[in-house]
Structure formats: C-alpha cells, structure tokens
Amino acid sequence: MSSIENTQLHTTNKVQVSIKSVAMPAEHGGWGFLFEPILLGILVAPSLAGVAIGLAAVGLFLLHQPLKIVIKDRKRGRVFQRTRLAQRFAIGYSTAAVGFGILAFLLSDGAFWLPPLLTAPLIAAQFYFEARNEGRSLWSEIFAAAALASIAPAIILAGGQAATTAAIAGLLMLLRLPSIEYVRTRIKWMHNKPASRAPTLITHIAAVAITAVLWAANLIGVAALIGTAMLLARAIYGLFAQREKNAKVIGIQEVFLGLAYAVLGAIGLG
Fold this sequence. Notes:
Number of domains: 2
Helix content: over 70%
Oligomer: single chain
Number of helices: 14
Distance between the termini: 69 Å
Largest sheet: none
C-alpha cells in the first residue's frame, strides 16, 4: 500500500470519528435510571443544593463513556483521534461534576455525600465489568443502576429532610431494578433467544410486596404502592400480551413509565 493510500485512510478515519459516540453513552436505557432519582429527590426536597447534586450526577454519568474509551485505548497501548477527543470530554465532564459537587457542599448542611459514598464499590465493580468487556452484562447494569439510585437520598438529605425519608426514597429507586431484567427478556425475545419470564415476574411481585409492607407501616403513601403495581402490570402485559418488536419503542415506554414511577414515589413520600 502506498504512502498516499495510507494518508487517505488516516484522513478517512479522522472524518469517521463520531463526536456523539465519544461524548454520549451508548446505553440509552441509563438515562432513565439517571433522571428518575433526580426527579424524585427534587420533588420531595427541592433545593439549590439538590439541583447542584443532580447536575454533578449528570456530569459523572456522561464521564463514563469517554473515560471508558480512554481506559480501553490506553490499555491496548494505542492512542487514536477518538482517544484524544475522549480525553477532552472526560476532562470537561469531570470538571463540571467536581464544580457542581463543590457547589452542593457549599449550599447544603446535610451529609448528602453518604449515600453516594456507600455505593462507590458498585461503581468500581461496574468499571471492573467494563474492563472485561462485560459492560452490558446483567450484573453490570444492576450495579450501575443501583449506584444511580443513591442520587435520590443524596438530594433529599441536601434538602434538609429526615434520613428515614432519604432511605425510603433510595429503596423505592432500588425497586426499579427489576425493569432491567424485564427489558433484557423482551430484547432476547426480539432476537428469538430463549428467556424465562420467572425472574422478571418474581422480582416485580417482590417489589410490590415490599412497598405494600411500607404502606401498611404508614411509611409511604398509597401512590408509591401504585407505582410498583403499575410496573408489575406492565411486566405482565409485556411478557404475555404485547408483541412489540421495536427496541426503541420499548425503551421509550420504559422512560415514561420510569418518570411516572418517580412522580408516584415522590407523592407517596410527600
């Protein structure tokens, strides 16, 4: 191959680098698990510190994609144009996250940092899966979503609410995790792969049972119970009746259901 052809290929590779693929997460489902706890937290305990925590969380969420690219490329001992671009985005996102985190500290008197600190091992585990190219495994997605769930109690603590309220909010967000198995099952069916309904149904029923106990103990309002019941009804319909073959449609449905669940959870905590 001539030097001219090499130059042309090098130039083509530069042109083909997509900013979106470097700057934005490839897993679109993660956006719901990010914004749901932010929404629930701010609805329960609105504050400027809570807004700052939410923005810091967005920065950290966005940091994942470029940081993953940098780590993988550096691990191979290679530096591409996308590596340098990813480094710039990683610096920008991390700077924004740190800046909003500092602002949250200045605006809040509560120990809002405790919930994210407790979930730090989950974030480390998620990066472990990424390093092994298992970032889309079931446990990797569960760990990531569980870590994001800590945003809700952090915002609520920053807003001056009781630790009990914050803990229940975190639990309500964790009860969204069965949705991960639901979506994975639906996607497997779309690709004609075998998948059992049992794990999805069992975990959704358990979520309803937990919220029913909390409601019976007067720790939450009936709206939160309606939220988990809504997700169970969706799972039953999706697993037994719906035959939607478009993954994007399923994803959009989950986003709206997740936001509705967050609103119902906030009402239940109000």
